[in-house]
Amino acid sequence: MMNFGFDQLYLVNPCELDDECYIRSVHAHEILTHAKIFSFFEDAIKNIDYLIATSSIESKTDKKHLRNSVLLEELSEKIYEIDGKVGLVFGREDYGLFNEEIAACDVMIRIPTSESYPSLNLSHSVGLVFFSLYVKKNFPTKKKRKIGKIEKKKLFEFFSELLEEIDYPKHKKEKTKIMFRRVMGRSMPSKWEYHTLMGVFKKTLEKLRKLR
Predict the structure, then answer these.
(1) Are residues 177 and 131 in the same domain?
(2) Residue 42 and residue 89: Cα distance in Å, rounded?
(3) Domain containing 117 — which CATH number?
C-alpha cells in the first residue's frame, strides 16, 4: 500500500496484528497502526461511496450479472472520475469474497491471467491493482499532436524520392512504399517526430545529390 501511495486500510475480522505483522510491514507499520478494524463487512463499507470488488471467478455469460467483470486496466482509466470515497474490496487468501459481498459492490474487476491457473495470491492481486491505479494517476498518457494529410503526403513524397536516389530496385519499390505507409500508420507519428524524420530525409537527399 505504501509503495503506491495508499494508506487507509480497513480490516474485517483479521488475524491478530502481532509483532510478526509489524516486522513484515517493515517501514509501512504506520498503515497497520492506523488500520480500522470491523467485525462486520457491512460496517466497513457503510461510508464508502463506490465499491470495487476483486475476484478471479467471473461469469461466462452476460445473463449472470453478479460476476460480470471489467478489466483492471479499463477501470483504472475511469476511477479518478468518480466523485466520493472509493473502496477496493479484497477477499480472503483461500476463497476470496462471498457472493453477498460482491453483490454489495458497484463493480467487479478482473486481472487478466492464464486460464490454466487464473487465481492470484492475495498480495500479488493487491500489488497489481495498486500499481495500475498509481500509474494511471501519476503517469497519464500524453496525447501526441498527430500529423495530418498534408504532412503524410510530404513524408511519403520524400521517402519516394529517397528510393529514387538510391536506385532502389523497381520491382520492390511499390511494395516498399506500401510497407513504409503501413509502418507510419501503425506508429502514428507526432508533429515533432514528423519534423525530425523530414529533417533526416532532407539531409540524406542533399548528401546523395551532391555525390551524383
Answers:
(1) no
(2) 12
(3) 3.40.1280.10
Reference 75, options 86, 61, 62, 64; nearest CA is 86
- Residue 58, pLDDT score: 60
Q: Give CA–CA dist 104/66, Å, rounded.
A: 10
Q: pLDDT value at position 144?
A: 67
For the chain, the domain total comes to: 2
Record the pTM. Answer: 0.69
Let me know if residue 144 belongs to a domain: no
Confirm if 111 and 120 have CB atoms less than 8 A apart: yes
Single-letter amino acid code for the residue at 38: F
- To 10 degrees, the CA torsion angle through 150, 152, 155, 161? -80
Chosen domain end from 93, 118, 138: 138
Q: Please count the other Cβ atoms lying within 10 Å of the Cβ belonging to residue 202.
A: 13
Residue 176, pLDDT > 90, answer yes
Residue 152 C-alpha cell reads as 503524410
